[in-house]
Specification:
The chain has 11 helices and 15 strands. The chain has about 350 residues and is of the alpha/beta class. It folds into 3 domains: about 210 residues, Metallo-beta-lactamase, Chain A (4-Layer Sandwich), CATH 3.60.15.10; about 50 residues, no CATH class; about 55 residues, no CATH class. Strands 1-2-3-4-5-6-7 form a 7-stranded mixed beta sheet. Strands 8-9-10-11-12 form a 5-stranded mixed beta sheet, with no helix packed on it. A 3-stranded antiparallel beta sheet has the order 13-15-14. Helix 8 packs antiparallel against helix 9. The chain starts with 16 loop residues before the first strand and ends with a strand.
Length: about 350
């Protein structure tokens, strides 16, 4: 039995598998909380290859990409298009080195830049080469600049110095940071048709995990590239920082859409293994979040009028406490507020409090 309880935690394998006709799956290494790999899918056609989610920035990931392409009988120069499902570095980061080697096109959803631009650092960001050599004190100053207010009255906590150094070490050689976004060549909207890998994919905009999340569906044989939207054994982070009134309901709507898709035979997620029951898994994820909402309802009997932090400590285990857990807790509390189950007030310290 695997020591990894969740598929998404498994370290990257060097095996190449055909997961649908003309679609190869390979895994690239990542070392992020709860994740051990990202699936990179190869779509073969007469022009060469399109690659879906080419991994993190950094030499380790790009070397693994080249080695696995070689195992499959290809080389980096065969890549004509990169498809990125959403604007997180473990999905778009490899695009920079691919473009240096191949000048490949980049296809994303229309909103690709919208979320990350709000997360990027202020003007005056230091050069990444200088940051890589910076002292811990310098990096702490950078972390302070990174911090920004939250809607619930606290500040976002930036990555700790060791994690920041890890990402800075992955920076491209042209002076950009590891958090910079590549510029898309082609952007698509919901229901647009994308011709890649001898297939006609239907673009599905699935906001929730990010506002720019893109899934691709080939109705001819029922293949779905699901990105992080629907994963086999974990659920993606839902941010309370999204610029919508109810990000959790937005995620629910995107999941219900997955349940409504007809003729799905295989789901190809960005982490974990391929699976078949897209609709069933989408409903499981909705049920999971409904259970989380029930936890908040029950907690309100003891801490009614509590802050987001107080509710977070009921919703998450202590090892997970922090900005991301607060953000997801806020998304759930906002959903209950929109439903009319919770009233929001702001105390003298500027902290939002939720009364049930």
């Amino acid at each position: 039995m695997s020591e990894y309880r969740k598929q998404e935690q498994e370290p990257a394998s060097d095996e190449i598998t055909e997961v649908a006709p003309g679609v190869l799956r390979m895994q690239l290494p990542i070392d992020l909380p709860g994740l051990g790999h990202v699936n990179c899918y190869l779509l073969e056609d007469e022009r060469g290859l399109a690659v879906v989610d080419p991994g993190l920035p950094g030499e380790e990931s790009f070397t693994a990409l080249g080695q696995r392409l070689g195992t499959a009988g290809y080389k980096i120069a065969d890549v004509h298009t990169a498809v990125v499902t959403h604007s997180h570095p473990d999905h778009f980061g490899g695009v920079f080195r691919l473009r240096e080697a191949t000048d490949c096109a980049l296809l994303t959803h229309h909103d690709f830049r919208s979320l990350i631009e709000r997360r990027e650092l202020d003007e005056g960001e230091p050069d990444s080469a200088d940051l890589a050599l910076a002292s811990d004190e310098d990096l702490e100053e950078l972390r302070e600049r990174w911090s920004r207010p939250t809607p619930w009255g606290t500040k976002v906590m930036p990555p700790p110095v060791p994690i920041l150094r890890q990402f800075l070490a992955m920076a491209p050689e042209d002076g950009r940071t590891a958090f910079s976004l590549p510029e898309p060549s082609v952007t698509v909207g919901d229901s647009d048709v994308v011709s890649l890998g001898r297939r006609e994919w239907v673009a599905l905009h699935t906001p929730g995990h990010t506002n720019d999340h893109l899934c691709l569906f080939d109705p001819a044989d029922g293949t779905v590239l699901s990105g992080d939207h629907v994963l086999p054994t974990i659920t993606p982070h839902i941010s309370g920082m999204a610029a919508v009134e109810d990000p959790l309901e937005q995620f629910f709507e995107s999941l219900r859409r997955m349940n409504d898709l007809d003729g799905v035979n295989v789901v190809l997620p960005a982490h974990g293994h391929p699976f078949a029951d897209l609709g069933g898994r989408a409903l499981e994820i909705i049920d999971h979040h409904q259970d989380r909402l029930d936890i908040l309802r029950e907690a309100s009997t003891e801490i009614g009028g509590g802050t987001v932090e107080a509710y977070m400590q009921r919703l998450f285990k202590e090892r997970s406490w922090g900005s991301m857990a607060e953000s997801e807790t806020f998304a759930h509390l906002q959903h209950l507020s929109v439903l009319g189950e919770a009233e929001v007030t702001t105390d003298d310290a500027g902290l939002q409090r939720f009364h049930f």
